[in-house]
Amino acid sequence: MNIRKRVVTAGLAAALALAAALPAAAQTASAPLKDAQGKEIGSANLTQTPRGVLIIVSVKGLPPGEHAFHVHAVGKCEPPFTSAGGHFNPDHKKHGFMSPEGAHAGDMPNLHIPQNGDLTIEVLNAAVTLEKGKPNSLFDEDGSALVIHAGTDDYKTDPTGDAGGRIACGVVK
Q1: DSSP strand pairing (166-171 vs 28-35)
Q2: Catalytic-residue membership of 95
């Protein structure tokens, strides 16, 4: 092989190796959050990361205080949002960060809504993915939803964390 062909071949191999090392385009999704009257009260933007799904939640006009925040198993948000099913739990675990048998893949930290009712926060859920076909994918056959509850998640009561009613819901798209 002459020197020119070797250089071209080496350059092509280096370019292919570099391209393989670059991350693929990030998978993203969103969920417009609505209250029981159908009014949009915020949104969530989801991005697949190497460590799970980063969820950026922005809400306005919620009651101040702590509110449970979960991924639910069904992509439906018909008031009073029970259509969203239970917590997303593909591994059939118990509820709560404090459960030795937990937690559900859909369990996430409580949202702390300030007095003005507006909040923007980032939450990383390492137990879920946006990659279709995976057992913990938010895009399984019936989809998934993000739900904000009226009460606080106690992080231990199975199956719901004693979080109370559902005050906002958004289908992950």
Answers
A1: antiparallel
A2: yes
